[in-house]
Amino acid sequence: MPEIRAEGLRKEYGKVTALNGVNLTINNGEYLSIVGPSGCGKTTFIKSIAGVVKPDAGEILIDGNRVTPLPIEERGVGYVFQEIALFPHMNVYDNVSYGLMVRGVPPTDRRGPVEEMLHMMVLEDYVSLYPKELSGGARQKTAISRALTSGSLLLLLDEPLGALDLKVRTVLRYELRKLVKDLGLTAIHVTHDQEEALSVSDRVVVMKAGKIVEVGSPMQLYLKPKEIFTAKFLGEANFMIGKVSNVNGRGSQFDVSGLNLSAGINGEFFPINGETCVLAIRPEFIDLTSKPGNVNTWACEIVSASFVGDSMRYEVRADNGAILLVKTPITEDESGFVNGDKAYVTLPEGSLLLYGLPEEGLEKALSLE
Amino acid sequence: MPALRLLNVTKRFGAIKALDDVTFEVKDREYLCVLGSTGSGKTTLLRSIAGILHPDDGDVYLDGEKVTEISAEERNAVYVPQTYALFPHMTILENVVFGPLAKNTSRGIAEETAGRMLKLVRLDKRADAYPNELSGGMQQRVALARGLASGAKLLLLDEPLGALDGRLRLELRTKLRKLAKESNLTVIHVTHDQEEAMTIGDRILVLRKGKLQQLGTPYHVYNRPEKIFVANFVGNTTFLEAIVKTRSKEGSTLRLREGLTVRVRDSSFETDEAVILSIREENTSIMPEPKGDEPNRLSGEVTAVHFLGSFIRYVVMLTNGDVIAARVPIKEVNTEINKGDWVSISFDPMNTHIYEYPTLGLQGELEAN
């Protein structure tokens, strides 16, 4: 049940700063995910904790002990990465018991922990099979079992499901979380799949350009992101620039390129009169109807409509030229809209997210590359 | 005249049939997405159309002309591999010029074409850069420009967005479709991402173990899946084993395990026949306590609650031990339902599908790729 602390981690590769002062405490028994665009430093971060990458500056503490100078073998971590690295000439049983073997545990004493792990991962039927005879999912489960059989309580998962097909990935992610909770492990999971991060984590870390942007529970980060980049990176969002035209005790009014919007008091950002702000709203919170709503209703025209199975995705153009993405559930009684239809969007006050105009400009603040 | 036609195409690799008697047509200027898991034959299909591979049986027609025996260079189709295969020692411009030059176009015309294509993918300002100086998204656009510059009217894209981060993928997929439509191209786009296929394909072709499972519009494939495999692969679905109890013109009544009964739309199966009932997770409602008496109301205990961003997913174990999942749009979540709560589940008979009981059994059918 280790607690991990990263203090002031820095790492540079030539001109590229992979970690630019990262501080983070991961609690005992926590399942923490790290997400961010390519090159944000998430992989360098988890590799620094594993001991595979040596940071240029900063410290890593496991249960209060400084492990920064220690190699991976002496850190007591289980490390699983995307490229499944099983020994091809060993069967599942031997692969899983490998860690105990190299530590000199005699074969009779290996059996207990190995069998327990194989049972936990429902791999008993596969013990005598070789890696090439296994499905991708079974192979990755074997790799996870091997990482854990050495008795490590810290599980580091570097895109562990990235190479698997979607359906297998979805099943395995819940099994992973269950395993971590059942065994009382601490897990750090790097992923590019946001749904994976949101669905299994106690907390999610969003990184950009070597820095932590925001840390919070999945719901916090998705529904009330404090940082504009979190709103952009997790899920989808529409962003609009608006000028504050009025502020009162219940909220504020905005002029968005000639159209009005009002927003309730929302989070920690309090706009002031005349200020230019960014308003954001997730596409699934916008109502799209053939008749106008009461508050925050704009007339619009449907620019594109696409069916994505469990919902419809529309692009609509408001009278001020703004293009909004709208996502609506499929309902039987509503046939939906087609290109060129006139309709109304309603942006519920409570669903609008407010941000100050970023110093570097909106486009730069939202850029992924 | 269809732009492409495959007639009974079979391709073997040793004992494995990578393509097994595949027949279909693609219309001129159509955007077709080919969907399947790893090993389903997607890449073999593209390479057979490109002429890089030659089928063991059957024929390939381009614009009505049989090209089965014709080499890749002489076909009016260009294959863009998943890895982009850019030449690392050549600039972006040289990489793109390569396509037309290989087709014996003069240097001047080739450069003019390349410049135009780079402008189209908005990389004209980076013409002098080398591939390793560009991000993954930009490299993808270069590969695309090279494909376009070859002048081929049929573009064969193998997981064109596969190497990109989730967020960037989302942005580029609509651009890709737009580009294809503006350039009057016929596109076959291979992907394992069902949402990608639904969003950009005019039609979707689902492959499994080299066999065509279904070909239709996204709406058709999603709402009328013809096989359990398609219903499972596209979308999120609950499958339950059942026996037909009674049937009439309006539908049938099914008996689930332990004698629970439900009503369904389909009446094509005989009484006492073993079948599989399928219900989409988003068509399944969940209520905190039993009330009302709509059809197909079942009670059970919530065993897991998964936050997925725009949806919350509830997993419920029914009184008979069957497990059913409900996916509720985040906007419609108004009552708090927690793990361990006793709830009622219901679904509209119109939203159900019935399939013949598979020879492998339900679990076997779902696990087989």
What is the CATH homology-level superfamily of the largest domain in chain A?
P-loop containing nucleotide triphosphate hydrolases
Proportion of residues in helical segments of chain A: 10-25%
The CATH architecture classification of the largest domain in chain B is 3-Layer(aba) Sandwich
Backbone CA Rg of chain B: 25 Å
- What is the quaternary state of this protein? heterodimer
The low-confidence runs of chain B, each spanning 5 or more residues with pLDDT under 50, are none
Shape of chain A: elongated
Strand order, main sheet of chain A: write it out: 6-7-8-3-9-10
Largest sheet, strands/sense/barrel of chain B: 6 strands, mixed
> What percentage of the residues of chain A does DSSP assign to strands (E)?
25-35%
Strand content of chain B: 35-45%
What is the CATH architecture term of the largest domain in chain A?
A: 3-Layer(aba) Sandwich
Shape of chain B: elongated
* End-to-end distance of chain A: 36 Å
Count of DSSP-assigned helices of chain B: 9
Structural class of chain B: alpha+beta
Task: Write up what this structure looks like.
The complex is a heterodimer of chains A (369) and B (369). By secondary structure, chain A is of the alpha+beta class. Chain A has two domains: 4-224, P-loop containing nucleotide triphosphate hydrolases (Rossmann fold, 3-Layer(aba) Sandwich), CATH 3.40.50.300; 236-366, Nucleic acid-binding proteins (OB fold (Dihydrolipoamide Acetyltransferase, E2P), Beta Barrel). Chain A contains nine helices and 20 strands. In chain A, strand 17 and strand 18 (323-329) form a beta hairpin. Chain A starts with a strand and ends with a helix. The mean pLDDT of chain A is 90. With 369 residues, chain B is an alpha+beta fold. Chain B folds into two domains: 4-230, P-loop containing nucleotide triphosphate hydrolases (Rossmann fold, 3-Layer(aba) Sandwich); 236-367, OB fold (Dihydrolipoamide Acetyltransferase, E2P), CATH 2.40.50.100. Chain B contains nine helices and 20 strands. In chain B, the strands form four sheets. In chain B, strands 6-7-8-3-9-10 form a six-stranded mixed β-sheet, with helices on both faces. In chain B, strands 13-12-11-14-20 form a five-stranded antiparallel β-sheet. A five-stranded antiparallel β-sheet of chain B has the order 15-19-16-17-18, with no helix packed on it. In chain B, a hairpin with a 2-residue loop joins strand 4 (57-62) and strand 5 (65-66). In chain B, helix 2 (92-102) packs across helix 3, helix 2 (92-102) runs parallel beside helix 4 (136-149) and helix 3 crosses helix 4. The two termini of chain B are 34 Å apart. Chain A binds chain B through residues 37-39, 135-136, 165-167, 174, 192-195, 198-199, 218-219, 222-223, 232-236, 282, 284-285, 306-311, 313, 327, 329-330, 332, 368-369, and chain B through 37-38, 135-138, 164-168, 170, 192-195, 198-199, 218-219, 222, 232-236, 280-282, 304, 306-311, 313, 327, 329-332, 348, 350-351, 369.
